[in-house]
Amino acid sequence: MEQQTLKTQQQPKIALVLGVTGGIGNAVAQKLLQRGWQVRALHRRADQMLAAERANGSNSGIVWRQGDAMQEADVIAAAEGAAIIVHAVNPPGYRNWATLVVPMIENSIAAARACGARIVLPGTVYNYGADAFPDLKETSPQNPSTRKGAIRVQLENRLRTAAQSGVRSLVVRAGDFFGPHMANAWFSQGMLKPGQPVTAVTYPGKRGIGHQWAYLPDVAETMMQLIEREEALAAFDTFHMNGHWDADGTQMVAAIGRVTGQADLKVKGFPWWLLPLAAPFLPLMRELREVGYLWRQPLRLDNRRLLKLLGNEPHTGWDQAVHSTLAGMACIKE
């Protein structure tokens, strides 16, 4: 009996990560593995992911499960025995948000209800409108002015409602993501070109306008520290991160310049005028145009509630974070 109890205690906790091939999903998965968790990943081509690891002679440590986040039965099966479900999945290329985002969170809710897990969701600032600007607290009203923001509010409302019937969730809200393996982001898509040396930066904002950034490993570590304080969390709980606050819109560019050894790095303006012309043909351009307001005014997430619980916020210095990001993009060598 004593040996059986010891074996049970040594069994790792299980986490299901939806969207593990994305930036934040991958970052959280790495933190979970480092903490000794068993990480499962639901993927529509799980056999190919496993075969690719074997071909490369690598072992990610991830347990691949065949399935689709749009299929409730697949998510429930993959989540069996899980303590947390990281819901980091989004439709690729921003396509079909209105028809895919809400069904996917409903499937995660069904899975969490079946296995008793807490859902962990990376939050966005899209939820807020002008009545909440410029300082965004967890209690700020969520009256978005964009289509994408309305969908995000609906998504979080589903979690809030589910909490009333015992499905726990945690939302960690942060600024613009940057970091290794983050392909679908302003840093890697709008400012620089992956795989090419840095000769110039295309900056979407104006000098003097603050902007909030979030380094993926810092976001993942924050999530982990909150997960490890389960007893302090409400059934539905939300925390904001400060991340990397660029007070005047020059600090990110300056960090890129220092890391690449270019103190006089050329800065070009983002071609906002082009987006209305390209939007009808390219979904990404339509989505970028919709969130353009985030670069025209300084919006800042208030992290005082997070600090009260954790004591401090995980934070990597500007230059180290940017260096890691550029190396991950193959813009510089490690």
UniProtKB/TrEMBL annotation:
<feature type="domain" description="NAD-dependent epimerase/dehydratase">
    <location>
        <begin position="15"/>
        <end position="233"/>
    </location>
</feature>
<protein>
    <submittedName>
        <fullName>Nucleoside-diphosphate-sugar epimerase</fullName>
    </submittedName>
</protein>
<dbReference type="GO" id="GO:0005737">
    <property type="term" value="C:cytoplasm"/>
</dbReference>
<dbReference type="InterPro" id="IPR051783">
    <property type="entry name" value="NAD(P)-dependent_oxidoreduct"/>
</dbReference>
<dbReference type="Pfam" id="PF01370">
    <property type="entry name" value="Epimerase"/>
</dbReference>
<dbReference type="GO" id="GO:0004029">
    <property type="term" value="F:aldehyde dehydrogenase (NAD+) activity"/>
</dbReference>
<dbReference type="InterPro" id="IPR001509">
    <property type="entry name" value="Epimerase_deHydtase"/>
</dbReference>
<dbReference type="InterPro" id="IPR036291">
    <property type="entry name" value="NAD(P)-bd_dom_sf"/>
</dbReference>
